[in-house]
Each structure stands twice: as C-alpha cells, then as structure tokens.
Specification:
globular, binds SN-glycerol-3-phosphate, TIM Barrel, about 50% helix, alpha/beta, eight-stranded parallel beta barrel, 8 strands
Length: about 220
C-alpha cells in the first residue's frame, strides 16, 4: 500500500520523508491556503522533495479552464498529478488530461457510481473521502470495498486513494478494503507507529541489556 501525506507544509515533509515511507503527497486548495504560500512555489518544492506523485488541484469551474490549469500545474514538475473535482466538467477535463498523458486524481468522491465515472474518464487515481462520509452518517470504508469490487470486476486500473483519513483505524481498514494508497494527515501518519506494548517491551529490553554490561560495537 502506498502512503501519501496530505499536506502543503514543507517543514512537515522534510521531517517525514526520511522515514522512507512517503510515496507521494496530496494537496488541496484548503491546504494551500493554510500554507499561506504561492501554490506554484509550494508544489515545486514538494515535487523536489518527494519523487512520487504530488497532487495539485485545479480550481476552474469548466473543463476548458481546468485543462489549462492542469497543463500549467503539470509543467511545474514531472511528478505533478492534476487533481480534478468529481463534476461533469471535471470528468471531461480528466479525460482530456489523461489523453495528453498526464496523471490525474479525481477528488471529492462520495459514491461508487462516482468512482465508476472517474475510472471511465481515465483517472489515474480516485479519492474517496472516507472521514467526511463517516461524518455524514455513511460508512467510508464500505465505499472503498465497493469501489475495489467494481474496479476488479471490470479491470479498471484507476488506483483507489483513500482520502479524508482521520486515524490509524482508517488506515488499517482502508488497507483491508484493498485501497491502493491512503493519503494521511501528518499527525495520523505519526500515530501509525504507536503501540504501548512496543514502548513497554523496548523499555524492558533496554533495562535488561544494561544489566549485562555489554556493548555490541
Ligand atoms: O485532500 C483531501 C482530503 O484528504 C481532505 O480531508 O480531513 O479535510 O476531510 P479532510
């Protein structure tokens, strides 16, 4: 499973990339606004830091504008993935950008039917919003399982990128449901390693080792 980090904060990525676990990054207009920086500069810096897919989202309302914005964003670096909203105009833009050989991420997916449309439009990734669906009273993880079954049944190679992931339990469930990737907020990513028995076990090993008076090197 690929791990993407859902952030536009360079300092955070500098901290997380050395773990060797960061396969890509996703951003959205909210995250860019939070960074307080010019989008093209942030995306260029992220792309230089992370060799994998870096999603940069278009904001145009119609396909023509989205295509132009997508081409502009894709020219920033070869690893930019153009993120497009799940609207009819977004799907038209996805088809056009995919036909031009660009990678695309169709975002704001909340139903299996929408995911089917994204695959038919040739999307490289589809982003089902797990947490926001849960907030809405539905089951975000069920959606991932449904999309997995549909894509496998018809042989679509669109990758399922679980988004709006809120906790380690979501990551576990997304992996079991067969999501290809999850985009994870930095704090949740750091939580993935935590287990009290790991801390307790390590403490005991270190204290017993100290009693031996040995050193390995
Ligand atoms: O980038 C899209 C998605 O991950 C947003 O998550 O937490 O704003 O629902 P959230």
């Amino acid at each position: 499973m690929q791990f993407f980090i859902d952030t536009a904060e360079i300092a955070v990525l500098r901290e997380l990339v050395p773990t060797g676990m960061v396969d890509g990054v996703t951003t959205n207009p909210t995250l860019i606004a939070k960074s307080g920086r010019k989008m093209s500069e942030v995306i260029a810096e992220i792309c230089a830091l992370v060799p994998g897919s870096v999603s940069a989202e278009v904001v145009g309302a119609d396909a023509e504008v989205m295509i132009k914005e997508g081409e502009y964003l894709a020219a920033i670096a070869p690893n930019v993935t153009v993120k497009v909203p799940l609207t009819w105009e977004g799907l038209k833009a996805t088809r056009a950008l995919s036909d031009k050989g660009l990678t695309t991420n169709v975002t704001l997916c909340f139903s299996a039917a929408q995911a089917l449309l994204a695959a038919k439009a040739g999307a490289t990734y589809v982003s089902p919003f797990v947490g926001r669906l849960d907030d809405h009273g539905a089951d975000g993880i069920d959606l991932l399982s449904d999309i997995r079954a549909i894509y496998d049944q018809f042989g679509y190679d669109t990758k399922i990128l679980a988004a709006s992931v809120r906790n380690a339990a979501h990551v576990r469930a997304a992996a079991i449901a067969g999501a290809d990737c999850a985009t994870i907020p930095p704090a949740t990513f750091k939580d993935l390693i935590k287990h009290p028995l790991t801390d307790k076990g390590l403490e005991a090993f270190m204290s017993d080792w100290a009693k031996t008076g040995q050193s390995i090197l």
